[in-house]
User: What shape does this take?
Amino acid sequence: AMDTDLSSQDRKDLDKFIKFFALKTVQVIVQARLGEKICTRSSSSPTGSDWFNLAIKDIPEVTHEAKKALAGQLPAVGRSMCVEISLKTSEGDSMELEIWCLEMNEKCDKEIKVSYTVYNRLSLLLKSLLAITRVTPAYRLSRKQGHEYVILYRIYFGEVQLSGLGEGFQTVRVGTVGTPVGTITLSCAYRINLAFMSTRQFERTPPIMGIIIDHFVDRPYPSSSPMHPCNYRAGEDNGVVYPSVEDSQEVCTTSFSTSPPSQCVFTVTKAHFQTPPPVVTDTLKVPVMGLAFSHQLSSSRLSYQPAALGVGSADMGYPVIFAGGLNAAHPHQLIGPGKEGGVPPVPSQPAHGTQADQERMCTPLDGVHYSAATPSSSEDTETVSNSSEGKCGSPHDLLETIFIRKVGAFVNKPINQVTMANLDIPFAMFAPKNVELEDNDPMVNPPDSPEAESPLQGSLHSEGSSGSSTGNTHDDFVMIDFKPAFSKDDILPMDLGTFYREFQNPPQLSSLSIDIGAQSMAEDLDSLPEKLAVHEKNVKEFDAFVETLQ
Amino acid sequence: QPHNNPVPGSSGRPPAMNCRAEVLEVSVEGRQVEEAALAVLHTVLLHRSTGKFHYKKEGTYSIGTVGTQDVDCDFIDFAYVRVSSEELDRALRKAGAVPRQDALRSSGSDGMGQISLEFYQKKKSRWPFSDECIPWELWTIKVNVVNLANEQERQICREKVGEKLCEKIINIVEVMNRHEYLPKMPTQSEVDNVFDTSLKDVQPYLYKISYQITDSLGTSVTTTMRRLIKDTLAL
Assistant: This one.
């Protein structure tokens, strides 16, 4: 009945406004959590593609995620679009910080002019959102992210889930806009325990664990949508293939009229642009991906591997974007972040009917073409009905990735070596390790001493060092044989001489050891020139340092 | 056909109404005055500026695009968003600079000032009468300036004032969200009566900024501020 009051053109316009409002809302929120200052230019001549007369850039991945979550629907009563912002530490613990909710309630304003008043009020609401995103506690945290934690976002559509925010969370209303089909409301619920964790606590290195442990939240409603870091590697656009946002083809030429309302003209024309080549139209300079905790001697990065779950091609040798089909139709429980500090559980078979949280990083797609609906397709049908972006939902086209956690200091362990038993306890990294893991960990069990080694070989460093600089210093010193007095001992499995040889030097840093199947060869090779350059540059320092040890 | 904005009469005069007034109060240290004032002014102007209008035939017009940018404060743990327009920023800084200079001049003693941001419409009158300025929204920013004794207090003040400003932004947004009276979108001949069209990249509603300085604060405000800082130090 309410629809009959609204002309079909108005209805179409309204739906379009709401859709793009939702997309822009997500952009504003995620961009406000990138950790960088945002700057866009004013332009006196309308470009025709700036929705709501505001210069808000579109990060393609974000738009893509939003569209995926909405799946062609619009916010309606009981169906809200939510952007969840959470924090994830380098240890792998995560905590929800905010939930931004775009909701619709039933209160209709029949009298309001869609093409004029609603549009302008939506513009005003976006401005309010710009302002409010800077004043919640998560903003300051997000500006300081990178070393110890990153900020992630997740978009979901449906019922709002606020339980992850802890007790006493606060709400701030950004604003409302009445429309003939309902009132749009935009608000943010945010955790306040954070208020006592001043950002300064994150500047001192320890003890993040001590803080997080209080806010550790078990997700009661794991949802299907993946989490993403708000900032991501820029410039790695070797074929990142999110197509430019469809609405680049949708010109929102707004023509307003000052004549009496009955003659109000609002035109939205669809210009037929050339399909722009898929490119990351990221004009925001962002720092290196937050979880690339690079240190001088190695770059330890969280990396992804194609899962052995029987999906996807096995010939991907390097990190790929996880792409998911993770809605109720494709339930693959892969990861449950935030449940504990340990490695996420990996069931051997997809669990139907369950939904999983996904965390994902935006890494460059080398050679993987992420297929999604091309911009030129079915623009007209893309209003309220199902989006034609079905292609990206198919699990068969896509690779599934596994989140490889770091156990201990940047030691990569393949997931399938970790048993389920370890995973249910928080901070599994501190728990007694699986023997299987320990066997592989060169830090715990240094490789056996080379008994058969010719005495003339000489270097006394432990076998674990792969020819790094720490071993080189002893090359000058050749030990023919070492028979310490009273060195035989039947109790110990090794004699004193061996022990001495073995442990004369500190054990090899795990970060220098060859990681087991975690980092791809390509990555290693790629990073080598860089590492070499750094070492070469610093050779004088290293030498000087070694001098001081003599 | 009914609609939300007042139906224009032949003179284009808005219906008689009260100018709505909002008051915001902040207590800051001397060197924070300018940034605090700018944060509030820019946030209001963000909501009260549009893109440039381009009138076409048949009484239609198109609107330019407003860009935005983040501003970090140096003396306050605070950041805000402003319209990307250097002209507008300069105009506001000029208005905010004067109270700051006065505040600094009287440093050593606490003081109080007030900055007013008024949005108005012009109503053209026939000669020999001059144009009327009819305000429709008035923002008053009361600034209490406190002088602090040591660096520790100043550090706390940085954080506290930052938190307070966050509250003010939320207050401003609440007011904006009420969708109360806004001047009707003008015809081309009337646009200068509603908007400031002198800027090249954005178009704020016509506004005026004025300020006044009073001298010493009442003791109550100073002691409250100091107590707040001391309490935080004691925590």
In short: Chain A touches chain B through 51 residues (CB under 8 Å). Residues 195-224, 232-249, 259-475 of chain A have pLDDT under 50 and may be disordered. The CA atoms of residues 438 and 444 of chain A lie 6 Å apart. The longest strand of chain A covers residues 94-105.
